[in-house]
Amino acid sequence: MVCVREIDPLVRKICELHDKISKLENLSPSKEVDSSSRSSPNRLAFVGSGPLLLTSIILATYHLKSAIFHNYDIDRSANSVAEKLVSLNPDLSERMVFHTKDIMGTNSDELRQYEVVFLAALVGMESDEKVRVIEHLSVNMADGAILVVRSAKGARAFPYPVMGPDCLRGYEVLSVYHATDDVINSVVVARKCREFSGENINQGFDILSAR
Hints:
The protein has helices at 2-22, 31-34, 54-63, 76-86, 90-95, 108-111, 127-140, 203-209; strands at 43-47, 68-73, 96-100, 116-119, 146-151, 171-177, 186-192. By secondary structure, it is α/β, with parallel strands linked by helices. It has one domain (2-209): Vaccinia Virus protein VP39 (Rossmann fold). The protein has a seven-stranded mixed beta sheet with strand order 3-2-1-4-5-7-6. Helix 1 packs across helix 3 (54-63).
């Protein structure tokens, strides 16, 4: 019972943080973000969803109430826990799809299905690794699709890599929001450019090596 009393406040705090992230000012309707889509997305992917997948749950419950969420994680046990969690809600269990695989193993046939792709903060803990994932997505996502990336600024960059516009080759950055409260991550919203190809994919790493 002691453990339960200690965990409950932690769970509530985590839920509050994810709810704050989903309500960030720069994720609210704006001219720049609205211009990227004429309607709410129907199919979204969350890369690195984890066992709690709270961002997917909050967005599906309060913001995108008819959308299908495809949750990707390389950890089978994490997906197993997540599936059990959403099974408690009939609506969510119908709209949550789980993929146990490395996102680097996906191709354009799969990724072009999604209108929005969320990239979790813990996917690629080193800058070059995260850039590699972003460039794989940029080659394979549909033209005009939206990528939402967690980033960081200042002292908050200690545990997480900073993902600025120079790291988002193949995308047009629409909005950047840096949190000032107890939310650690910043959020970058970008749109896949229509004329990008994978011919010079290594150019992104030239930026990093020049820093």
